[in-house]
Amino acid sequence: MAHIVIAGGGIGGLATALSLGRLGHSATVLERSDSFAEIGAGIQLGPNAFHALDRLGVGETVRDRAVFIDELRFMDGTTGEKVAAMELTGVYRERFGNPYAVVHRGDLYQPLLAACQELDSVELSASAVVQGYEQDARGVTVRTADGRTFRGVALVGADGIRSTVRAATLGDGEPRVSGHTIYRSVIPIEKVPEELRWNSVTLWAGPKWHFVHYIIGGGKYLNLAVTRDDGATVPVAGREAARAHVIAQFPGIGATARRLLELGEGWRKWVLCDRDPVRTWTDRRVVLVGDAAHPMLQYAAQGACQALEDAVVLGDLLDGMAADDTVQRLEKFNVMRRERAGRTQLIARRMGSELYHPAGEAAEARNTMLSALTQGEIYDKVSWLHGDRDFTDSGLGGTH
After folding, report:
1. Which distant-in-sequence residues (6+ apart) come within 8 Å of 330 by Cβ?
2. Considering only CA atoms, which of 338, 185, 334, 320 is closest in space to residue 247?
3. pLDDT for 174-224, tens place per residue?
4. Phi-psi bin for 364: left (phi > 0), alpha (psi -120 to 50), beta?
């Protein structure tokens, strides 16, 4: 079997290592940080994510840590009106074969990490900052900043939105700054009044802003994420934000949403970035996955889901690989995944601009449109994304 080098020890990198390791390949995962750990707050997992996690052998472990919610709830953030909801229990689970859940990022990351640690075929190397690579007819040599080299038949770039591997492979510059600033807070559930502890992912949509909250950590915490379309032009990641500053960004927010917003503490902010979809994620024996290949805004709640899908499809394609057909298999992976992931990137953008942030008559028209949809019609709209088990359906009438 083959040895593959993976740049990046996040969710996508570990899922890829696990996918390859379970099929008999060996992998070395190079993580730039001094430890393998996941920071962040809440994350949403659709049925497609659980299909992938089951294939990776960690589905039940993640389920044990997850909160299974009853609905995705869309609210008018200024009037407080409930506009629409997608029910996520009986019919939804029967149709898509798995639940919809929310977890703390660590509750997804730790099962992947533990499963990799249990495999003798997976080597985890921290403090390994990838600087570049060279490849020849037989494999790839990866260089790290401390002078080490790692050799494999292929290199998987799973090193995030500012991927060093992508820079060397595609050379397409910095990510696109969205102009949206997101503020995040996680608070103990004891600080939340009982009447506001809803078992839903609730989104309040306002003019050039939206607010999402849901329970995570097995019911121990409330995750708050509030986004402002403020025209920000400089990337920011995890900077502290004063509580008064955050609240002041949303003067028109309705009473109930404001109560929830005012519960937040220890706020941090990010300026969101993504990239345009590209058709090529490969350079002969080098391939990109996850945010290195198709970084997307959070608005479709599919970033981690798509990285998990990548891992499963890539593992399947490299099963039984011979050294001389590596390039062809990586190219096939690219073709199979690019339309689905690319469409998801663009839909995430559109949700922010067209669904979540309109004002005035445009917001009224949106509310009228959403409130008229039946549950069956809502399910039909997400079926290509939530229900696909091959992870190649772009929802455009073809698989790729």
Report:
1. 154, 282, 284, 285, 286, 287, 317
2. 185
3. 999 999 999 999 999 999 999 999 999 999 999 999 999 999 999 999 999
4. alpha
* Euclidean distance between CA atoms 26 and 380, whole angstroms: 40
- By C-alpha distance, which of 343, 349, 330 is closest to 280? 330
Which residue ranges form the domains of the chain, and what is each CATH number? 3-174+275-386 (3.50.50.60)
Distances (CA, A) of 326 to 4, 17, 61, 114, 285: 11, 16, 32, 28, 7
Q: Catalytic residues, which ones?
A: 214
Determine contact, residues 329/317, Cβ cutoff 8 Å: yes
- Give the global pTM: 0.96
Q: Do 135 and 141 meet the contact criterion of CB atoms below 8 Å apart?
A: yes
Q: β-strands 286-288, 26-30: how paired?
A: unpaired
| CA angle centred on 163, ends 175 and 286, rounded to 5° | 125
